[in-house]
Amino acid sequence: MRVTGLVPRRGRRRAGAPWRAHVAIAVPLIAPTAGLAEEALATEPVVLVGAGDIAGCSWNRDEMTAQLLDAIPGTVFALGDNAYPDGTNRDYADCYDPTWGCHKARTRPATGNHEYITPGAAGYYNYFGPAAGEPGKGYYSYDVGEWHVIVLDSECGFVGRCDAGSPQGRWLQADLATNGRRCTVAMWHRPRFSSISGSNAQFRDFWKVLYDAGAELVLDGHVLY
Question: What is the pLDDT of residues 188-220, one digit of tens each?
Fold first, then answer.
């Protein structure tokens, strides 16, 4: 995994306060092969590159990280809170589209809490269209090479909870049961664990279901360092 594009918050930092950073993560995903180690090394990596808490018209961090995307191939992920402040049609058009929007055709997004400031996350669904999955759900999956990618919606109150018995929880279990890829990565906005906010029990079932299915990696956003 390569973490790049660390950009501290603009302005003076309050003594003792954490840095607020905007990080682009490039994840080369190489699925294990059944053959020799040389075969695994020769396997063409699948690249996922992205970040969360991305764009706003009052800063330039999104411009800087978008420049990183220009040089990195693969599928772009957006981990929610993609267009500040409210995820409106205008926020996406004026703040996200001029920078990260240059890579819209290869982007697979997730919702965040700021998306839902706009009722039904309408700005998000209007902007990304079919790439965001079915409107009103916010969860979907796709395959890249030998990797199965699962996108979940961590705004539980807007999608009928996040426990194993919820519509999203049942969908996750069914999706994993039919997954034919060798490796699995899941992503959503609010983290299950964080060194700042600790443990978020809302996502305990997500974590357990993915762990029991042998998922390799989880990517989250939301917590700003």
Answer: 987 766 666 656 667 788 889 999 999 999 998
Owning domain of residue 77 = 2-219
In a domain, 225, yes or no: no
Residue entry with tokens 């996750």: 172
Q: Looking at the 3D structure of the chain, how many domains does it have?
A: 1
Claim: this prediction has a pTM higher than 0.90: no
**DSSP-derived secondary structure letter, 182:** S
Q: Is residue 72 part of a domain?
A: yes
Is 187 within the bounds of a domain? yes
- Cα–Cα distance, 70 to 134 (Å, whole number): 28
Asked if residue 224 belongs to a domain, the reply is no
| CATH number of the domain bearing residue 106 | 3.60.21.10
pLDDT in tens, 43-52: 668 899 999 9
| Alpha helix segments (H runs only) across 70-136 | 89-91, 122-128
The continuous run of DSSP H or E covering 40 comes out as: helix 37-42
Residue 171, classified by CB atoms within 10 Å of its CB into exposed (0-12), middle (13-18) or buried (19+), is middle
Contact 8, 211 (CB under 8 A): no
Residues 65/49, Cβ–Cβ less than 8 Å: no
Taking the C-alpha atoms of residue 186 and residue 218, their distance in angstroms, rounded to an integer, is 5
DSSP 3-state of 131: helix
